[in-house]
Amino acid sequence: MNKFCVLFFAVFAFAADYYKILGVSEDADDSEIKKAFRKLSRQYHPDKNPGNEEAHQKYLEVVNAHEVLADSAKRQIYDMYGEEGLNDPRLFNRRRGPNYRFELEVDLEDVYNGLAKETTIRRNEICTKCKGTGAKDKKTTPCRACGGKGARLQNLGGFGFNMQMQVQCDRCGGKGFLAAERCPNCGGHKVVSALKTLNVQIEQGMDNGSEIVFGGQSEQNPDWFPGDIIFVLKVREHSRFKRSGHDLHTTVKLTLKEALLGYQKKITHMDGHTVQIEYEGVTQPESVRRVKEEGMPHHDVPSNKGDLFVRFVVEFPNKLTEEQQELVKKLLPN
User: Among 26, 37, 148, 313, which is disulfide-ready with 176 (CB 3.0 to 4.6 Å)?
Assistant: First the structure.
């Protein structure tokens, strides 16, 4: 056995299995990977294991495994080509797949209080059985058309001379290999249709048209890096509150007596707390009162809030008795 073979088998034998390092399955989702990393990084952190070289090395392995598996592009390359593929810059120069945008309807309460909402989409995912090779048990054979090089020479004739140009092999798509036998899970298509559940975090203060981006979570394909899933918020109109930037507007009804003599009113806000307003004196119809810091939370700093503007509508009686008319005349002679 020559030195190259010895070196090859040594590298293969000791190649890191990032999934085993984190203790997760090969089809683990992002949340499982993140959870496993947090647990193991705390366990082996150097601050908790001073002077323990074995724990330090284990910590470095955990960090390295997480760096690869938490990155959709690196994980896709690792799944298909192994650890060696991460050192091939050509694999990182592939095009990026399309982004997909979805409209997500929410209530004004959701962007006032914040909300975690699970949403399920259907997308193509790289087949977990063949890791996107299209081959049963990931067994491939060199492409005969290009001799495993992924490219071939094409003759360019004409004008009394012959030239050759290197072009991508159209049979293997430039990969240099073909499936020895089709994967029974995907039928050799390399991808399968699957449902993906995303935990959409609607943050306080988001507005109509705000975007929530899941990077690298769009359609998967071995020939490209996945694009993004983008949720665009569409905020429904509220029955009692209307938003204007960071401020809120609402309407309060007053009886004629309250408009003339004063009022005490309670407004139930969108998180359940009560805003109490009161006034002694005359309130003009359609007048507006400003209540500071009872508006919408600012998206960048939710502890800061806009103001609440209360518009007063006076409900006049439909009809007065003769006795009531006389009393009004005496009270309001002018």
Answer: 148
Residues in the chain predicted with pLDDT less than 70, given as ranges, are 1-15, 156-162
> Residue 217: helix, strand or coil by DSSP?
coil
Give me the pLDDT at residue 158, please: 57
Cβ-based neighbour number of residue 2 at 10 Å = 7
Is 245 in contact with 306 (CB distance < 8 Å)? yes
Residues 6+ away with beta carbon under 8 Å from 259: 282, 283, 284, 285, 312, 314
Query: What's the confidence (pLDDT) of residue 233?
Result: 97
pLDDT tens profile 297-321? 999 999 999 999 999 999 998 898 9
Phi, psi of 241 (to 5 degrees): -120, 145
What is the pLDDT, as a whole number, of residue 157? 61
Residues 6+ apart with CB under 8 A from 95: 223, 224, 225
| Encoded tokens for 89 | 């810059």
Per-residue model confidence (pLDDT) at position 6: 33
Report how far residue 169's alpha carbon sits from residue 88's, in angstroms, rounded to the nearest whole number: 19
Please tell me the predicted confidence (pLDDT) of residue 5.
37
Q: What is the DSSP letter of 301?
A: -
What whole-number distance in Å separates Cα of residue 243 and Cα of residue 305?
Answer: 12
Instruction: State how far the Cα of 85 lies from the Cα of 63, in Å rounded to an integer.
Output: 19
How far apart, in whole angstroms, are the C-alpha atoms of residue 44 and residue 84?
26
The stretches of 45-158 forming alpha helices (DSSP H) are: 53-69, 72-85, 108-113
| pTM summary value | 0.72
For position 15, what pLDDT does the model report? 55
Token look-up 């020479």 returns: 153
What is the rounded CA–CA span in Å between residue 314 and residue 197? 50
d(CA 111, CA 231): 14
Reading the block at residue 33, the tokens are: 């990977």
- CA-CA-CA-CA torsion for 208, 209, 212, 213, nearest 10 degrees? 180
